[in-house]
Amino acid sequence: MSNNTSFLKSGHLPTLLSSFLYFDVSFMIWVIVGSLSTFMVQDFGLTDAQKGLMVGIPILGGSLLRIPMGLLADRFGGKRIGAIGMILTMIPLLWGWLYGNSLNEVHAFGFLLGIAGASFAVALPLASRWYPPEHQGLAMGIAGAGNSGTVLATLFAPRIAEAFGWHAVFAIALIPLVIAFIVFIIFAKDCPNAVKPMTIAQYLSIVKIKETWILSFFYSLSFGGFVGLTSYLSIYFVDQFAVSKVTAGDYVTMAVLAGSFIRPIGGYMADKLGGMGLLLKLYGLSAVILAAIGFIQVSAGVSLVMFILLMLVFGIANGALFQVIPTRFPKKVGIFTGFVGAAGGLGGFFLPNILGTFKEMTGSFSFGFWWIGLTYIVSLILVMWLMKDWKKQGYLKKVS
After folding, report:
1. Which of 144, 202, 247, 382 could form a disulfide with 198 if both were Cys (CB 3.0 to 4.6 A apart)?
2. Long-range contacts of 180-186 (CB under 8 A, 24+ apart)
3. Which of 14, 18, 21 shows the shortest CA–CA distance to 176?
4. Per residue in 293-307, pLDDT tens?
5. In whole angstroms, what is the distance from residue 312 CA to residue 291 CA?
6. Tell me, what DSSP letter sits at residue 209?
7. pLDDT mean over 122-151
8. Residues in CB range of 37: below 8 A, 6 or more apart
9. First to last CA, the chain
10. Is 51:235 a contact under the CB 8 Å cutoff?
């Protein structure tokens, strides 16, 4: 039996595709403030630091809500919690459409958009539990490719905002959300062999596991880099190169496309080559590219090429990391996904704030990119140390 045939027969394809659609539309909604940031900045007249905070708050909301969403999905089922999450996501969309006339309101409904970002902790375990270890990377990669929803946001949101105003974007976003909700209700199904829900004490016990914090740090860099740049790059291209708002959105779309659709390939590569060894190479490459971005800001085109390369690396790393987690901790996928996913959101919150703050302090984006690049050098050291530790314990063969 071929590997592809084995994959199709081993799980539940309707749930996998429904999880992808749920995550895709939710992710689109999660980054809508970043996609509209250049229009909002024009209305509210923000400083560089305020710009970074505004686009970072929805990411922070998603980060903080991922752990409780993961807990609830494990206890009450991913289908039920996913459906509730989509209903609740309609609230900030209605708020952004009908009100949202001050920066404080943008912060408030932006934080609530984090409900959509927390879909990660529901959609991935819901799909993952249907698949055996040898197909975890591909299954998690396909479900996780829902981060391609950012493409819809960066491509269409600026155009709709230019034609009808940025408030209208929130109204139109309700349409795909309702469609995803209906598909999810009809086709998604909880795996009957799901792990029995653990007690709160058992959930909290993972904070005592060192890998929880290390893998969270890794994801805060790769996924945090992806979602943070997705939300901030429009501001970067407009401020640094004075391109139009729609052009900036198109540039971000190109970069996001690269990072989104390569994620399943990252999972597949990790299945074949080993997740940890792959992460070692990817984080080293990230540090090099970030250093180059800081030094070379001669034109929008050159910067775009470097950001596309960086997003490709981030996308592969995201897929690889979520091959490592279910392979190394198969009985704790849900809570690990929620915890590590939350850290990814925190990374995405800090990144635009770091870039905005350094820009305000120094008048240049370079120092922010160099600062972020240094964190990848730290990650290299941690990957090597963890691989050595797992080798001693006999785990490295499964995930290396």
Report:
1. 202
2. 180/21, 180/22, 180/24, 180/25, 180/26, 180/86, 181/83, 181/86, 181/87, 183/18, 183/21, 184/18, 184/21, 184/22, 184/79, 184/82, 184/83, 184/86, 185/79, 185/83
3. 21
4. 999 999 999 999 999
5. 16
6. S
7. 80
8. 51, 54, 55, 231, 232, 234, 235
9. 25
10. yes
Residue appearing with tokens 């929008």: 300
Token pair belonging to 105: 């309101």
What is the three-class DSSP state of 276?
Answer: helix
Q: What is the pLDDT of residue 392?
A: 82
Instruction: Tell me the two tokens of residue 193.
Output: 């062999």
Tens of pLDDT along 261-284?
Answer: 887 788 888 888 888 889 999 999
| Overall average pLDDT of the 45-71 stretch | 91
CA angle at residue 246 from 344 to 176, to 5 degrees? 60
User: 373: Cβ–Cβ under 8 A, 6 or more apart, which residues?
Assistant: 286, 287, 290, 291, 294
φ/ψ of 277, rounded to 5, equals -60, -35
